[in-house]
Amino acid sequence: MATKQKNVGVDDLVMLTEVSEKSLLDNLNQRYKDGVIYTSIGPVLISLNPYKQLGIYGKDQINLYKGKHEFEIPPHIYSIADKAYRSLLSERENQCIIISGESGAGKTEASKYIMQYIASITGSSTEVERVKKQILESNPLLEAFGNAKTLRNNNSSRFGKYMEIQFNLGGDPEGGKITNYLLEKSRVINQTVGERNFHIFYQLLRGASAEEKSKLHLLSPESYVYLNKGKCYTADGIDDNVAFKQTRHAMKIVGIDEPLQEQIFRLLSAILLLGNLNFTATGTGNNSNATISDKNIANTIGELMGVDPILLEQSLISRMISTGQGARVSNYQVPQNVEQALYARDAFAKALYSKLFDFIVRKINESIEVKTSGKVIGVLDIYGFEIFENNSFEQFCINYVNETLQQIFIDLTLKTEQEEYVSEGIKWIPVDYINNKPCVDLIEKKPIGILSLLDEECLFPEGNDASLMEKLNKHFANNSHYSNVQQVRNQFIIDHYAGKVFYNINGFLDKNRDTLFNDLVTLALSSKVALVNEIFTYVAPPLEDVEQEKKNRDKMVRGGYANTGAKSVIPTDKKRPITAGFQFKNQVGALLKSLYSCSPHYIRCIKPNENKRSLDWDQEKCSEQVRYLGLYENLLVRRAGYCYRQTFAKFMRRYYMLAKSTWPKWTGDAQQGAQLLLDELGIPKQEYQFGKTKIFIRNPQPLHSLEDKRVVRIEQLVTMLQSVWKMYKQRQWYKRTIAARKIQRSYRGWLLRREHVKLKNQSLSIFLNNKERNRQSIQLGSIAFIGDFLSLAKDSFTQATIKKEEGDQGTLELSVHVNKVSRHHKIQKRALLITKSHIYAISSHKPKKDGSWFNIKRKIPFSSIENITLSKLSDNFFVIHVANEHDYVCETNKKTVLITLLSKLYHENLQKNIQIEFKDSIPYRSQKGTSELKFSKVDQIPHQKPAASAADVENYSAKPEKGCLKILVLPGLPPETKSIIIS
């Protein structure tokens, strides 16, 4: 059953009776301590990390929030996801969900629940399920390689992620794309005490089989220098063994097969062993050169990476320097001291892992990419604001991107909204808010911003962290968001929206240069392991401006080292490279461009305490986050503002069908149409205002009423369209059916006539020149050859009787009344039923209760018929001679049809012609013995009674004589008479 959310405080802070920062915090505190972690400020969702499972994310909860308006249900992350999905379908505009907050506030979990919800409410075809599975399985894979345990969070994202899910016109996911930002690769080589390296290392060491551990030369976590600095090897709530199985399963889902998995694990093992590679100094003073202390470790690394151990050692302890240009270029192998060798080792390890992570992201994208472009929902899960005891270049970049995201929030929820009220002429009392744009400018503005000065300092061969510190203090001495630390020379302070952060300048230049010597690139390119070669030859596509990217790459080609800016190129001189800061700034710019092109939805995550204790509330910390997230200012704007605004044209395009005065088409002024529509629907004037170009609706209830009416109206219109369409389709079907029946009837008639003409021609071939013709036979139409003169083809008793005699194959072909000559030469009324293989002589009686109405007097199989004999006169008598039995003698005025059809059926059944003879004296076997039919032609039948019409006149009379039946026959037409031309 769905868990019903408790009614604690107010769901929407807009409904607070007292509007103050204290009442806002008290409401959040009250709800949080009662297990209610979601609260809203209009469309903005506030989420507090409960540090425990609350049971509010099941299938029942998904069904509860599916297709509901915000005011109908309590705030929930599913409500935000549903609103974004419905907006994408109804508005056909890209949507984005921006999740922001401190590290440990629950952003990554929030993004998972959004993905889960979208996957649950969309289609279930095979292809859709495949795409959803790959998107969902990307989470554990990215977490394994990109997340780590920190002091604040056991599953902290150490990279930024923007996941775009693309939908088809039917609203089902058809693909997606993941963009990753600034992996904290320094974590590969160093961790704070109490923190861990990336999860994947511990998963591999715990979850690999004994055979894999031997093959990959794996040790215990404590044995690796790159893992033991943090003195922490486990994390609460994380089972590395189980997680490793999930990671391998996810790899398989996104297309990373077992051979490629093995290459990845070999590379991970090599990275860990690089940290155990130590160097010994040879020589003294400035001439001391480094050599590898333990050759066995180097040999193992070389084996795992597929490179020559000697080349590995040479690349780490020496550096190739080129001087001169063109034909005068000279190469020098410059030995490195121990410090330089350790730096090269760590840089190589960081580059290997960073490029491997990028490769993992590319493989995921390959599995979910789609060639066509469509509407997307983007989910931004990026590292939260970080303030540590020692904040370095990584924290500077992380806090920079959070500063820009806060600027988006301010622009779209505070600044732009208020400016819009003023520009539209809406009555408005401005709300003051803290604008952090000066802080963003401090970091990124050209030509004098911290990032620009950092890149500039990297150009100078003698540039160092101290000289950078001097420039920063000089240029930003009067900046309100910057200050230096008088007591500590290597620190500066930036006053961020989240508070003041002390940054340690040491390492800024090295981390920004992101130096990787050519020798190490050459080493990687020599690898026999395909994966190592691939990750170093991959060239990332241009981020924005193709021409600018080309210029940047040309600069890098002329530079003195390789880096992540253009991963496949080994430069040749010492000019300006593409720095990590420059790259990150470009990435952030591209991200902002994507976010500004979407309709945004906000989830503001709050970390309730630093101790990760369930439902523990730290008032001071929460107050600080509420303040810097701008929640109070957002509340003031929502209280004073309007929940909905839209241009008149778009408003009419969405709701014109609700009023009779604007339906079915409104072609006049859009504002006038909106007024007519609202008046007709009875929306009170105090609920809305008209601006210069837009309509503003104050409260959500009228808007939801419009939406509900629209849903009902669309259903009505769809029903109407369906009925009209169905009527049209039915009419078309009926017309086509009638036409088809006419064609079929005409065709069947033509086939029947053609067949019957053939039969009539066949009858002529039988009787022509053999027998005098009866006028009735000459005038016989082709339709007479249908043959079922008694209409018994559909008689149930007849059908049942024939099936009983012959099985399912038996079908009636001919039924006709006959006059049978008995053994006493008397005429008896009978009927003949002829199938494809038998002749049945039947006599009728009164119908009985079982439905029977005749008895079979005789059954004659075709195979027992010897021949048929007729006279040469114009009578209708014939004799069926039956082998080893008495013959069957009868007369019928349907003689021509009967004999013709019988001969046809006989031939089809036995593949031979029936013998037909013509005699004026026909001997036959009766039940009493031999008998005879004697025929005589007379001009007049003696003693014939007057007939009602000429058609009723019998052309014969039969009189028994001793041992025979004498038949007198009137003259007929000559035997050569033809009724039709035989073709």
Write out key terms for the chains shown.
983 residues, alpha+beta, Four Helix Bundle (Hemerythrin (Met), subunit A), Alpha-Beta Plaits, PH-domain like, seven-stranded mixed sheet
Structure description:
The protein is α+β, with helices and mostly antiparallel strands and 983 residues long. Among the domains are: 277-345 and 511-586, Four Helix Bundle (Hemerythrin (Met), subunit A) (Up-down Bundle), CATH 1.20.120; 644-735, Alpha-Beta Plaits, CATH 3.30.70; 775-933, Pleckstrin-homology domain (PH domain)/Phosphotyrosine-binding domain (PTB) (PH-domain like). It contains 30 helices and 31 strands. The protein has an eight-stranded mixed beta sheet with strand order 23-22-21-20-26-25-24-27. Strand 10 (318-323) and strand 11 (330-335) form a beta hairpin. The longest helix has 68 residues, at 700-767. The radius of gyration is 49 Å and the shape is elongated. The two termini are 84 Å apart.
Please write out the topology:
Elements (H helix, E strand, L loop, with lengths): L20 H13 L4 E4 L2 E5 L10 H7 L11 H15 L3 E7 L5 H15 L4 H21 E2 L7 E2 L2 E8 L5 E9 L17 H9 L2 H6 L9 H4 L11 H14 L4 H18 L3 E4 L6 E4 L2 H11 L3 H9 E6 L6 E6 L2 H31 L6 E7 L11 H31 L13 H8 L5 H10 L5 H11 L6 E3 L6 E6 L2 E6 L3 H6 L4 H8 L4 H8 L8 H12 L22 H17 L2 E8 L12 H10 L2 H10 L3 E4 H8 L14 H12 L6 E3 L3 E4 L2 H68 L7 H4 L17 H11 L7 E8 L5 E8 L3 E7 L9 E8 L3 E6 L6 E6 L5 E4 L3 H16 L5 E3 L2 E6 L2 E9 L18 E6 L2 E6 L14
Parallel strand pairs: 2-16, 3-12, 3-16, 24-27, 29-31
Antiparallel strand pairs: 1-2, 4-5, 6-7, 6-12, 8-9, 10-11, 13-14, 14-15, 17-19, 18-19, 20-21, 20-26, 21-22, 22-23, 24-25, 25-26, 28-29, 30-31
Helix pairs in contact: 3-4, 4-5, 5-6, 5-9, 5-13, 6-9, 10-11, 10-13, 11-12, 14-15, 14-22, 16-17, 25-26, 27-30
Protein name: Myosin IA heavy chain
GO molecular function, one term: microfilament motor activity
InterPro entries: IQ_motif_EF-hand-BS, Kinesin_motor_dom_sf, Myosin_head_motor_dom-like, Myosin_TH1, MYSc_Myo1, P-loop_NTPase
